[in-house]
Design brief:
CATH topology of the largest domain: outer membrane lipoprotein receptor (LolB), chain A
Shape: elongated
Number of helices: 11
CATH class of the largest domain: Mainly Beta
Order of helices and strands: HHHHHHHHEEEEEEEEEEHEEEEEEEEHH
Structural class: alpha+beta
Number of strands: 18
Number of domains: 3
Distance between the termini: 29 Å
Mean pLDDT: 79
Radius of gyration: 33 Å
């Protein structure tokens, strides 16, 4: 069972939310939820410790608020007598006849004041150290577009040219309506061994040869399209210069991708891949590598048979050709040099996390499973390696790839350009890429990809859908004291 949580760090290592434990301590959970959580607490040392600390905190606050000294009955009678008796005129009073003033006891008033100060101090310390209210989220489309394009450029047999076109997919000139992409013919050929396939993929990731060409991008679904021509200039040891243009020749943007470090190229995954030689693309001899043709989602790559250079890629979803991108013109160069590489201004580089580091974030409240809807975790990025406030995860099964973004915050009831799915209540934005978003607890989830939004909704079912958290004042004070206890006792 998934538990909602007020902020990412409030989820315990076992996955239980501190907010639910707080509700259990206040006896505020409904019967069925209370019984399930109580049964879990009996087996979980983390939850038992946290529940004990929450109850001790509440007991401390109750003692502080109840420790108010009440006036004694004798003091009350004296105060009433003073109120009924008016002040005596100064002239008529004599030292001999003036009654001796009875000093009013100040100890009870001091006790009340100290008790109030103690309550204020306890509440103030807890409130100051407690989690602040989550900020309101803006439209996540731009973040999703950048995350999807980055993941596509970094995947096995990924295309930096296609990634650059997707990064600029918001430009109206790249979203056109025209003929559907056409498949490239596959010729008969000799089957390659897995070791040969792995070597071609390794060469493709390493940028083995200099080349210049025109890469045509055609990605189209019933919900959106991207059509572009990317001029590619690549030099080993330097990198790749990419200029994205519309089909009418309008330059959209220019970017530069540095050459990969050969020491950091991961091992090729060839499980489920098949390849055959005897193909041709853009005048080059090629090998076609493909996933299972009987699956609902199938991908093909054509790579140059000598260097492994990616020449073309196609994606088929439910029998429909969604993407057909590749070189229409290509010249292999013996030598070349990029004199003035240009990159898009203002691009921020996120921290790249290892998959093991991403999995460890689960104990800090982030949702980082190894698999989602049959897709494996292959990459992770964040805005900080030690204490991230945003997290991007990439899941893939070679043929299909999606990106999951997480960020603490609150999601508005509606966003311009989004539609609410009637069955799930999730906000959906069709387009390229497609985006679906919702709030779980105090975290906003975004799933994005080049597949139709209906495909993304099937994947969303494996992600958290907790009720949006609404922490009370006592919740924040209690969470603050838990954090203080963590500072003091480690």
């Amino acid at each position: 069972m998934r538990w909602s949580f007020p902020t990412p760090p409030s989820r315990l290592p076992c996955g239980t939310s501190e907010a639910h434990l707080s509700a259990l301590a206040d006896d505020a959970l409904p019967g069925a939820a209370r019984e399930r959580l109580a049964g879990h607490v009996l087996r979980c040392p983390h939850c038992r410790t946290t529940l004990r600390e929450l109850r001790e905190t509440r007991a401390l606050v109750r003692r502080a608020t109840q420790n108010r000294a009440e006036p004694t009955s004798d003091l009350s009678q004296r105060l009433m007598a003073i109120a009924r008796t008016g002040p005596e005129p100064a002239a008529a009073a004599s030292t001999a006849t003036r009654p001796t003033a009875t000093p009013v006891a100040t100890a009870p008033r001091v006790g009340v004041l100290l008790a109030l100060l103690a309550v204020v101090a306890v509440a103030g310390i807890g409130w100051t150290n407690g989690p602040a209210p989550a900020p309101a989220m803006a439209d996540p489309l731009i973040r999703a577009r950048i995350a999807v394009s980055t993941a596509i450029g970094e995947q096995q047999l990924g295309s930096a040219a296609t990634a650059s076109a997707l990064a600029a997919s918001g430009a109206p000139a790249l979203s056109t309506v025209g003929a559907n992409p056409q498949p490239h013919p596959v010729r008969p050929g000799q089957e390659l061994e897995p070791v040969e396939i792995a070597e071609l993929i390794r060469q493709a990731a390493g940028l083995q040869t200099a080349h210049h060409g025109q890469w045509r991008v055609d990605i189209r679904t019933v919900e959106g399209a991207v059509n572009a021509v990317v001029t590619v200039d690549a030099v080993p040891g330097q990198g790749t210069q990419l200029v994205v243009q519309s089909l009418k020749g309008t330059t959209i943007h220019t970017t530069f991708v540095a050459a990969p470090d050969p020491q950091l190229i991961p091992a090729a995954e060839v499980a489920g891949l098949h390849a055959r030689d005897g193909q041709r693309v853009a005048g080059q001899r090629a090998v076609v590598i493909e996933t299972d043709p009987t699956a609902s989602t199938q991908r093909r790559w054509w790579v140059e048979e000598r260097t492994g250079l990616l020449l073309r890629t196609e994606l088929v979803v439910d029998g429909e050709l969604v993407e057909a991108s590749g070189f229409t013109e290509l010249t292999m160069l013996d030598e070349a040099f990029l004199s003035h590489p240009q990159t898009r201004a203002g691009t921020r580089t996120a921290a790249v996390l290892s998959t093991s580091r991403a999995r460890s974030l689960h104990s800090h409240g982030w949702f980082c499973p190894d698999r989602v809807a049959g897709l494996s975790l292959i990459g992770a990025r964040s805005d900080g390696a030690t204490a991230p406030s945003r997290l991007n995860l990439t899941y893939s099964n070679a043929a299909q790839q999606i990106t999951v973004l997480q960020q603490p915050g609150t999601l508005p009831q509606s966003l311009p350009g989004y539609q609410r799915d009637q069955e799930t209540g999730i906000l959906v934005r069709p387009g390229m890429p497609s985006v679906v978003t919702w709030q779980s607890g105090s975290t906003v989830f975004v799933v994005a990809g080049t597949a139709p939004s209906a495909v993304l909704l099937d994947i969303v079912a494996d992600l958290p859908h907790d009720r949006p958290a609404a922490p009370t004042v006592l919740d924040r004070i209690g969470a603050g004291w838990l954090r203080v206890g963590g500072y003091v006792f480690g």
